[in-house]
Amino acid sequence: MNASNHTYRPEPLRMTNQRKGILEEVQKARQHLTADEVYELVRKKQPRISLSTVYRNLEKMADAGILARLELSGNQRRYDWNTDMHHHARCVRCGAVRDVPVDAGVELDLGSQAINGFAVSGFRLEFKGICEKCR
Amino acid sequence: MNASNHTYRPEPLRMTNQRKGILEEVQKARQHLTADEVYELVRKKQPRISLSTVYRNLEKMADAGILARLELSGNQRRYDWNTDMHHHARCVRCGAVRDVPVDAGVELDLGSQAINGFAVSGFRLEFKGICEKCR
DNA sequence: AATAATAATAGTAATTATTCCTAAAAGTCA
DNA sequence: TGACTTTTAGGAATAATTACTATTATTATT
Ligand SMILES: [Mn+2]
Ligand SMILES: [Mn+2]
Ligand SMILES: [Zn+2]
Ligand SMILES: [Zn+2]
């Protein structure tokens, strides 16, 4: 029931050189990179790539689920190679972002799916603190 | 123990007309306003106020704890009249932001204060879902 | 293979949110 | 009053992101 009645055109995603280069850097960096950082990395191998291509493709691949948009408060947008559900911790001193596994001292009861009339479909948890380097 | 050793100069905050107008609007709106929205509201009563004054004073008053900075993912910054600890839920359709009381189905164990070498001092929890209007 | 249709690109301009700068105005206080 | 400090308005500057456009590359169709 309630199936969509018009056929999906699956939006072909051509795997261009630029796209491949971008994805590669994001995946091998194993960090949470900004568009600008990705640009600087890809540039080394593809000096003619443009910044807007990087922006566009990070967004496209995030939409496609190939990588994850990392939404942190009040910052430059970052992208995550890790598309699995996990949380993040940010150092208030140096701004470093660390992964936090879902079970690390965190228990979140989403059983009551309706908060204040909201149909809750997900949540985002962001820790703040001070990393070991900054102590 | 561990008290700061230099005396605090308590940073005098003059309660100017502009400041009063800004605070008033934030508090009576009972919404999570952006700087721009505050500007438009205050303008009605103080047509000569400048946008940068609004920005500057929202920041100052947030620093002073008179109002709260509301940090949501990837958005324009918003300010909260409510400085008590609480969470927020955002509607993915219309963007509306609702308050979520700290005890609403949420149990977060911060007993283990060290996550991954991080000295955790706080966290931010943001729900996403669909509000009643958008269903 | 040639042609047509579609998608992606580089480079740049435009937009948006925010912060910075500066000279003038207003508030504080001895 | 006069010195000092804070705040202001208005505009310029910055930073991140998005939009535009002519060109190039890829895929589909004859
Ligand atoms: Mn991550
Ligand atoms: Mn709130
Ligand atoms: Zn740090
Ligand atoms: Zn809604």
From TrEMBL, chains A, B:
Pfam families in the cross-refs: FUR
GO biological process entries: negative regulation of DNA-templated transcription; regulation of secondary metabolite biosynthetic process
Lipid biosynthesis recorded as keyword: no
Residues annotated for Zn(2+) binding in this entry: C91, C94, C131, C134
Keywords assigned by UniProt, alphabetized: DNA-binding, Metal-binding, Repressor, Transcription, Transcription regulation, Zinc
Alphabetical list of Gene3D superfamilies matching this protein: 3.30.1490.190, Winged helix-like DNA-binding domain superfamily/Winged helix DNA-binding domain
Cofactor(s) the record lists: Zn(2+)
Cofactor, free-text remark: Binds 1 zinc ion per subunit.
InterPro entries registered for this protein in UniProt: FUR, Fur_C, WH-like_DNA-bd_sf, WH_DNA-bd_sf
Gene Ontology molecular functions: DNA-binding transcription factor activity; transcription cis-regulatory region binding; zinc ion binding
Protein family (similarity comment): Belongs to the Fur family.
Protein name: Fur family transcriptional regulator, ferric uptake regulator
Organism: Desulfatibacillum alkenivorans DSM 16219
